């Protein structure tokens, strides 16, 4: 790292961290690729590329995407704490670990540290702190959290007995629809530097949903 350059710190959503561990518990792949993450974790290709870089930064994977020895300990419940401690000390300076130990749960102190040392905005610092405490968790959850499916929480309207087009007021004749010329739309997407992983993934998912 060049002198004066800010040290990058990992940032991963919980669904990726625990979802990948769930896959590793079943079987450790020979290598983790962008395609593997996109297919197995159901994320957008652009997001998978970002996550792969972060997993390498944590030391879970080597430069070729092959799981390191720490990944074998990470997947097992009885050696999870040992593996998480190893990755925590490899990814973060002792100063942060001493100032805001994950066991203390003082997230605000960690946020202030990332804002000061990383020169980050509050939103980005909170994302970094969330990853820091997730990695430093002493015990894995009983079940990996699942990503919400788009539209899964939206209630559907009850269907009426007849389609709207077939219902009209008495005495009114249907009006013939005018044929409109084809419409071409050019879309530019601007993503904030402070956007977190789930927001980036949601942007790409909505682009595909509404533009196809």
Give the tags.
single chain, globular, 212 residues, 46% helix, mainly alpha
Describe the structure.
With 212 residues, the chain is an all-alpha fold. The longest helix is centred in the last third of the chain and has 15 residues. It is globular and about 40 Å long. It contains 9 helices and no strands. It has a domain of 122 residues. The chain is 46% helix and 0% strand. α2 crosses α3 and α7 crosses α8. About 10% of the residues have low confidence.
Short description:
The chain is mainly α and 212 residues long.
Topology at a glance:
Layout: H1 14-26, H2 34-40, H3 45-58, H4 69-74, H5 80-91, H6 94-99, H7 107-117, H8 122-135, H9 197-211
Helix pairs in contact: 2-3, 7-8
Mean pLDDT: 79
Order of helices and strands: HHHHHHHHH
Q: Number of DSSP strands?
A: 0
What best-fitting shape do the alpha-carbon axes yield?
A: globular
- Share of helical residues: 40-55%
Radius of gyration from the CA trace? 23 Å
Q: Whole-Å distance between the termini?
A: 42 Å
Number of helices: 9
Taken as a percent bin, the fraction of beta residues is: under 5%
Oligomer: single chain
The class by helix and strand makeup works out as mainly alpha
The low-confidence runs, each spanning 5 or more residues with pLDDT under 50, are: 148-164, 190-194
Biggest sheet character: none
